Amino acid sequence: MKCRLKNINGYPRALQAMLGLQRYVNESGLEHSLQELVKMRASQINGCAYCLDMHSKDARAAGETEQRLYMLDAWRESPVYTDRERAALEWTEAVTRVSEGHVPDSVYDVVRRHFSEEELVNLTLAVVAINGWNRLMISFRVEAGSYQPPRKAAEALRPGRRPLTPTLSARAGSGCSRHSQRVFGCVRRKTPSPWRSGRGWREGKARLNYCSGENDDGMTILFSCATRL
């Protein structure tokens, strides 16, 4: 499989539009573990290898169990999910497969028992976001397997690293430690091109930032950078 788009940075406004939506979802107050389940389930339905690789690693790094990830495709028959998570997964499937049932009232009624109106709006945007990422990764054949979860990068940061001031336009690699650049396959270019980062969330004592860059083969990848606070 050959990647169809080697420089997503050539379209920074398009990338920032997606990152802006993802940033809103991350900061919406929905549980991180629930968000990861939503991302995984939508990616299973859409068959997005890149997103499945990314979010299975992110979920495990955040403490999710292997059992819950393995059983996700059969969540209705599994006892390991809460009623709220089941409702979120039901909604995820209905919104992702919108052409099949147009999100029926029966699903809405079940989900509203577990989510307020505001939470349901945010949950829907979470589904919209991951479906958007799925379609980007699948359409441009972005290769799966190179992503590393943010927690590993945070643990590898040098002691005393100063906090990063998040920006929407930074020079190549300026927001990442050298170790993070090596872990994520980033390269510095002789002629700096804009690397885009969207402000992420805080985990422990590290700030996570979504970035995009190229690996050693010139392939564009999306990843998260962590900077010690």
3D architecture notes:
This protein has 229 residues and is mainly α. The protein folds into two domains: 31-139, AhpD-like, CATH 1.20.1290.10; 150-228, no CATH class. Helix content is 48%, strand content 11%. It is built from ten helices and three strands, in the order ααααααααααβββ. It has a three-stranded antiparallel β-sheet. α2 runs parallel beside α5 (83-96) and α5 crosses α8. It is globular and about 45 Å long. Residues 156-210, 212-221 and 223-229 have low confidence and may be disordered.
Q: Output the strand order for the largest sheet.
A: 1-2-3
CATH topology of the largest domain: AhpD-like
Number of domains as seen in the coordinates: 2
CATH architecture classification name of the largest domain = Up-down Bundle
CATH domain class of the largest domain: Mainly Alpha
Rg estimate, integer Å:
18 Å
User: Could you name the CATH homologous superfamily of the largest domain?
Assistant: AhpD-like
